[in-house]
Amino acid sequence: DLFPSHDMKWVRGLLTCRLLGLPENCALTDGAYLFRRTQKFKKIYNQKDPKKISVFPHYTSAKYGAGLKQACDILKFQYIDPRDEPNQILAQISKSRLIIAEALHGCIFSDLLRVPWIPFKTSEDILEIKWNDFFSMLHLNYSPLPLHIGWNIDLRFLMTQISILVGMLKR
């Protein structure tokens, strides 16, 4: 052990502290924020070129919700597939002027790159406890915008939902 006389603990948020019986000062934030300390972050951050509105789904929505990608193509939004190579994902985020994200780490990395973001949710499969834990450190409430996709998706309806969502953000 580097520090045998120290007992170090770091968790994402206040909910994790409560669940594990830890003092609240153990809640710092998601460990992904350490990425900011890397050379790779500095390189990506210095190449920012915010032009596109991007949609970053949760991996389950990417796997089973093909309609979301189609809607993004039609609306000329950048679709960021969470299953892609991490360097490609980070480059896509850095070229965005807005991220509409269902994936928690999509929002976290957008935040790191200072790209505005807003959460959305397509199903009850998204683990809200992770979001609420993260949001507890921001002193915010997790209120994702609902975006309904399913097996028999009406593409026009989905495009309308996304357009309304973007319109809400411009207000």
Descriptive key words:
171 residues; alpha/beta; five-stranded parallel sheet; 8 helices
* Average residue pLDDT: 86
Number of helices: 8
What oligomeric state do these chains adopt?
single chain
Largest sheet: 5 strands, parallel
Largest beta sheet: what is the strand line-up?
2-1-3-4-5
What structural class should be given to the helix and strand makeup? Answer: alpha/beta
Low-confidence stretches: none
Task: Give the arrangement of secondary structure elements.
Layout: H1 14-20, H2 39-45, E1 52-56, H3 59-64, H4 66-75, E2 78-79, H5 86-94, E3 96-101, H6 104-112, E4 117-121, H7 128-138, E5 145-146, H8 155-170
Helix pairs in contact: 4-8
Architecture overview:
The protein has 171 residues and is an alpha/beta fold. It is built from 8 helices and 5 strands, in the order H-H-E-H-H-E-H-E-H-E-H-E-H. It has helices at 14-20, 39-45, 59-64, 66-75, 86-94, 104-112, 128-138, 155-170, and strands at residues 52-56, 78-79, 96-101, 117-121, 145-146. The protein has a 5-stranded parallel β-sheet, sandwiched between helices. Helix 6 links the parallel strand 3 and strand 4 (117-121). Helix 4 packs across helix 8. The longest helix is centred in the last third of the chain and has 16 residues, at 155-170. The N and C termini lie far apart (53 Å).
